[in-house]
Amino acid sequence: MRKKTSRIIAWLMLLAAAAFLAYALGHPEASFPWSNAVTYTLYLAYGLLMLLLFIAPFKDRE
Q1: Structure pTM?
Q2: How far apart are CA 20 and CA 13, in angstroms?
Q3: Cα–Cα distance, 39 to 1 (Å, whole number)
Q4: What is the pLDDT of residues 14-30, one digit of tens each?
Q5: Helix 36-55 and helix 3-26, axial crossing angle in degrees, nearest 10
């Protein structure tokens, strides 16, 4: 994967996270059907993947 492509994906993920946060703050009555531990694990995995895509030193293919 090229560096530029991974950065674009990371920015899209960040935008999706911001949109999700805005929706979640506006609709506190909505919730997930599982425990908070599962939710926090999913948030952590999403954040780590996004961080990896931002900082990973992928080499551009020539």
Answers
A1: 0.74
A2: 10
A3: 29
A4: 999 999 999 988 888 88
A5: 150
End-to-end CA distance of the chain: 12
Longest dimension (CA), the chain: 51
Of residues 1, 2, 10, 3, the one with CA closest to residue 46: 10
SS3 per residue for the chain: CCHHHHHHHHHHHHHHHHHHHHHHHHCCCCCCCCCHHHHHHHHHHHHHHHHHHHHCCCCCCC
pLDDT at 46 over 60: yes
